Amino acid sequence: MAAVCLAALALSFASLYVIERPFRQYARPMQVNRRLVVTAALAMLAAFAGGLLIVAKHGFPSRIDAVAARFLDAEHEKFLHPYECLSVGQTIVPPSAACRLGRADVEPHTLLWGDSHSLATALALEQVAQRAGSAVLYAAAADCPVGIGFSIDAASGPSFVSDAAYQYCQQYNQQMLQLALSTPGIHAVVLSSRWTNWRMGEPGTRSESPVDIRLRNASGVAPTMAANKAIFVQGFEALVKKLVGAGKTVWIVGPLPEPSVRVPRALFIEHVSFDKTGLDIPVYDFAKRHMAILDVLSDLSQRYPIKLLWPHRVLCNASTCPIVEDGHPMFLDDNHLSKYAAAKTSPMYEAVIAH
Prior knowledge:
Elements: H1 2-24, H2 30-56, H3 66-73, E1 86-87, E2 99-102, E3 110-114, H4 118-132, E4 135-141, E5 151-152, H5 164-167, H6 169-182, E6 188-192, E7 215-217, E8 220-221, H7 228-245, E9 249-253, H8 263-272, E10 281-282, H9 283-289, H10 291-303, E11 307-309, H11 311-315, E12 320-321, E13 324-325, E14 328-329, H12 339-345, H13 350-354
Helix pairs in contact: 3-8, 4-12
């Protein structure tokens, strides 16, 4: 970085003496200025042509090594399959049009329900379903807390909460519940979500800006972000109670360790520079960040016959949760699992498909 700064300083002085000052010296003969104009115009055309070439060659990916390219490619994974099953922004994927993952010629016995974190669960479940000759129904709603009886208040927080997907949240949950209850073949319901976030009245990771979003139920809008927790827990338990009462086996995917940086970018910078800052997530940080939802899940498991799945036990060792393994990023941003990490968790879901 120091070398780049020195080079920029040298170029700026060269530009000053070779281009700027000569153009300002009108006393020079006209042919000199004309020659400078032609030279500058040709240089601009060359730069323009070079820019077009860079665009056409997609930035010359060969300029970086395979490890760096793998790090950067991870950021594009969020748009891969099964992203088409996700309601996000102005795009709505109703449960009636739920995707079928796994075998296309068999009746699904499992329903996957959740927000954007469930994309990784879907990838892992699909791998298991393919191996077992089974199928899974899947429709998700980004940033929609899993539960019934509440909605996201359109008048609170930033303007994007008025987007179609945010305001579809309550309807999505109701329709998913109807799908689960009205489909006799659905025996198992998997709930997968980013449990610890604004919905629990808590901030995101250190790399995220605070977002003040409020939940609304029959009693009104949560007066504070912290009050979201009571509304969410009430609606979440009501959902679990209905599903269990209908004879469905409820599987809940526990929270993920969340890094404090956008992992692919941080790994790339670490790879090409001398910055070797420790980026792995201490297990005690995971436990502290998710303390509230861990208590909620523990309480529910004592009162309802639910089954809990713990991705962090697969992704972490005794002391840390690594953000890279064998050169593969474990996250595609600051909280979503990469395809590699999702595949690593797939054996955990064999019990779901086999049930």
